[in-house]
Amino acid sequence: MEGITGIIAMVLIAIVAIEHLYILWMEMFAWETVGKKTFKSLPEELFGATKGLAANQGLYNGFLAVGLIWSLCIDNIEWQRYIALFFLGCVIIAAIFGAVTASKSIFVKQGIPAIAALIFVLLTYV
Questions:
Q1: Which terminus of the chain is more exposed, N or C, with fewer CB under 10 A?
Q2: Per the UniProt record, which residue ranges are transmembrane (predicted)?
Q3: Domain count, the chain
């Protein structure tokens, strides 16, 4: 991605990717420690019972992160844009679904950064 908007787009994509790598780590490896501190509304006894489910969710977040990182490594500008838009779109849809089904804060924490990155990816190619 070229120009200042391209640099901003890449930084925002990297931030979204890092956020999803953190979610992967928490849900796959720290569910019963950090997960308890993060999801305080869940009863403590559920964390052991839902460890496998959380790990599965974490894996999906990892796939989103890897896709976003991949978009930063592509030399072909057109393909870089397509891959970034696809994975940012996936994050936005997941954030909307999470906001509707679980907590509105999911949209703020995950959706807004992804939307900002998407806007800058689109601005880079105008």
A1: C
A2: 7-26, 46-70, 82-100, 106-125
A3: 1
Residue 29 structural domain: 3-124
Residues 6+ apart with CB under 8 A from 63: none
**pTM of the predicted structure, to 2 decimals:** 0.93
Helix (H, G, I), strand (E, B) or coil at 1: coil
Q: How far is CA 117 from CA 5, 37, 48, 122, in A?
A: 10, 28, 35, 9
What tokens were used for 91? 């994050």
pLDDT in tens, the chain (126 residues): 778 999 999 999 999 999 999 999 999 999 999 999 988 888 999 999 999 999 999 999 999 999 999 999 999 999 999 999 999 999 999 999 999 998 899 999 999 999 999 999 999 976
